[in-house]
Design goal:
By secondary structure, this protein is mainly alpha-helical. The radius of gyration is 14 Å and the shape is globular. It is 38% helix and 7% strand. The longest helix has 13 residues. It has a two-stranded antiparallel ribbon. 9% of the residues are buried.
């Protein structure tokens, strides 16, 4: 279920959406539920391309082994993202 939040209803989401740095959020099933303009600028993928797309992880991390290792590290880190970089495959094919 997609919930569209109007920036007028909650200006906090407007601020997050417009951050110049990438910011994304995930639900308990690891689905991407938020993808800001910083993510769009860096990856070339719009929020429409990624948010709640069941293939989002395959799009961003097409190498199955790399994706598996990344998820294992994610679990090991217990959602601690500090000082962790992800090698994302961008829309233009660059990493």
């Amino acid at each position: 279920m997609t919930v569209i939040i109007n920036d007028n209803e909650n200006p906090f989401f407007g601020a997050l959406r417009n951050l110049p740095v990438p910011f994304s959020a995930f639900d308990p099933n690891y689905r991407v539920v938020f993808w800001n303009r910083g993510c769009e600028r860096i990856t070339g993928y719009s929020a429409q391309d990624i948010v709640e797309n069941p293939k989002a992880w395959e799009i961003l991390f097409p190498d199955r082994d790399h994706r598996r290792r990344m998820f294992m590290e994610w679990i090991d880190r217990k959602n601690d993202y500090q000082d962790w970089e992800w090698d994302v495959t961008c829309k233009d094919g660059s990493v």
